[in-house]
Amino acid sequence: MKNVATLCFFFCCVQFSLAQIQSGEVIYKVRPPESVVEFIDTTKKDPDFKKWILKEYHKIKQAAPYLTYTLKFNKKEALFDRPESMANENGMDLNHVAQATGAIGIYYNNASSQQRIHQQEFHEKYWRIQSGKVNWKIQKETKDIQGYTCRKATAEVTYFNHIRSKKKRKAVAWFCPELPFQFGPKGYGGLPVLILELDVNQYTFYADKIELQESDRPIKKPAKGKLISTRDFSKKVMSSGPPRP
């Protein structure tokens, strides 16, 4: 009976401590797909194309462990981006890996309005690309991430391909019920709690370090460039393919 009382007291202390949390920061790392062969168009006759793809994938595989992103958030807003650096100490081009993952620029979320803005530079101009709400479906699966038990959620995400046709791809999120912040990597949110792992476009963004704070953290909303929808950005701006969601 004493052990049960002690456990209940400890649980209440943990819940009270989490209730005091006002802001935080998560460091995410990136895991590329295990194999790239399945994504190569085998109908192409040119063998040099396959060699080039494999060479690029090898570079990405080597550099990916050194690529990090930061999610800074409070109760209402969040910013997701990465430190500006052309290469790490080993001379690897981290910008090249970032381009491959599709996570470039700054991603902003507002929990109240469900607003998602992706600020990025394209053709020497800044744009603020506004996306809609993500409609998640909660699944039964769970797994442990950084000591937190997380639940699985899936969604179909709309994007526009190189000929500006509307397409959909699957996104998989692992969210933590203990952390009541409605944010995640690459501007993904819409769940009532924090996303600690996101799998989209064959790349996985996973939490490597989590810091929580009792003090509030100000979040500065991106203000560079014209505000435009994903569709309009694809129609009016993109000539070599749209931004990945």
Classify the secondary structure makeup into a structural class.
alpha+beta
- Rounded to an integer in angstroms, the radius of gyration calculated over CA atoms is 20 Å
User: Uncertain spans, ≥5 residues at pLDDT below 50?
Assistant: 1-17
Q: State the order of secondary-structure elements, H for helix, E for strand.
A: HEHEEHEEEEEEEEEH
Main β-sheet, spatial strand arrangement: 7-8-9-10-11-1-2-3-4-5-6-12
Count of discrete structural domains = 1
Strand segment count:
12
- What is the molecular shape? globular
| Tally of DSSP helical segments | 4
**What level of helicity do the residues show?**
10-25%
Main β-sheet description: 12 strands, mixed
Mean pLDDT over all positions = 82
What is the CA-CA span between the terminal residues?
52 Å
β-strand percent reads 35-45%
Briefly characterize the structure.
The chain is built from 4 helices and 12 strands.
Which helices and strands, and how do they pair?
Elements: H1 2-19, E1 23-31, H2 47-63, E2 68-74, E3 77-81, H3 94-101, E4 106-110, E5 115-122, E6 125-131, E7 137-145, E8 148-160, E9 166-176, E10 194-200, E11 203-213, E12 226-229, H4 230-236
Parallel strand pairs: 6-12
Antiparallel strand pairs: 1-2, 1-11, 2-3, 3-4, 4-5, 5-6, 7-8, 8-9, 9-10, 10-11
Descriptors for this entry?
245 residues, alpha+beta, twelve-stranded mixed β-sheet, 4 helices
